[in-house]
Specification:
- With 229 residues, this protein is of the alpha+beta class.
- Helix content is 50%, strand content 16%.
- Among the domains are: 98 residues, L1 transposable element, RRM domain (Alpha-Beta Plaits, 2-Layer Sandwich), CATH 3.30.70.1820; 45 residues, no CATH class.
- It contains six helices and seven strands, in the order H-H-E-H-E-E-H-H-E-H-E-E-E.
- The strands form two sheets. It has a four-stranded antiparallel beta sheet.
- Keywords: Coiled coil.
């Protein structure tokens, strides 16, 4: 990168205005020999050159360091922007999804059988006879011993997905051990699990998800605090 200021400083270091190393031809018998004086002058010149070289090196290191630091900052900002865009795209894709816990599992259950169980849940317990329904569904690998495998389901319509969430109060009144949850991105799910572990002993707060984002709710004042990292 061409910098007029850097060039000016380098020239001032290489061509100092007030520094001079001169040789002498004095034959005074009380002084050192000409050969000794030449060596002294050579040493002074070498010292001067080394000092100037160090100053130039320090100047270059400082300038290059600033340039690299600025470029690293720009790169980190661009990387963060790309990561945020990717997370937004993942969140939008999962805004059609739900996770369902607690529906009894069957040996060798097929995705089609899983979908039938979900549709029966929606109609029988939530009163939701959906027009478009579920695009696909499947069980996840078993994560908790002696518990049914969780289900991932994707709706054709985000509106119908929201209708299901709006009807979840009916599950509580029927005392079903079934939980329907947002389809979270991996990073959001990690935040959810971390915050739940941190607040496990705090009875005044709980962790919830809204539109793929994680919030901490204070049950006393009904306030929501977004957790972003």
């Amino acid at each position: 990168m061409d910098s007029p200021e850097l060039r000016k400083q380098l020239i001032s270091l290489l061509l100092p205005s007030s520094t001079a190393v001169t040789a002498t031809t004095t034959t005074n018998s009380g002084m050192d020999s000409e050969e000794q004086k030449e060596k002294e002058n050579d040493n002074k010149l070498n010292d001067l050159l080394m000092a100037r070289a160090n100053e130039i090196g320090n100047l270059l290191a400082s300038t290059v360091g600033k340039i690299l630091s600025q470029r690293v900052d720009k790169f980190e900002n661009r990387l963060e922007a790309v990561e945020n865009e990717l997370e937004d795209a993942r969140r939008y894709s999962r805004s059609f999804n739900i996770r369902v816990y607690g529906i009894p599992d069957s040996p060798n259950e097929t995705p089609a059988q899983t979908q039938v169980k979900l549709e029966e849940l929606f109609v029988t317990y939530l009163g939701q006879n959906l027009k478009h329904g579920i695009e696909f569904s499947h069980r996840l690998p078993l994560s908790i011993k002696d518990k049914p495998r969780p289900i991932i389901a994707r709706f054709y319509s985000r509106l119908e997905r929201q209708q299901v969430f709006s009807s979840l109060g009916k599950l509580k009144r029927k005392y079903l051990a079934v939980t329907i949850f947002d389809g979270l991105t991996p990073s959001a799910l990690a935040i959810y699990k971390r915050e739940r572990a941190d607040l496990k002993s705090d009875g005044t707060k709980r962790v919830i998800s809204r539109q793929g984002k994680i919030f901490i709710q204070d049950v006393n004042v009904r306030s929501l605090q977004l957790v972003s990292k």
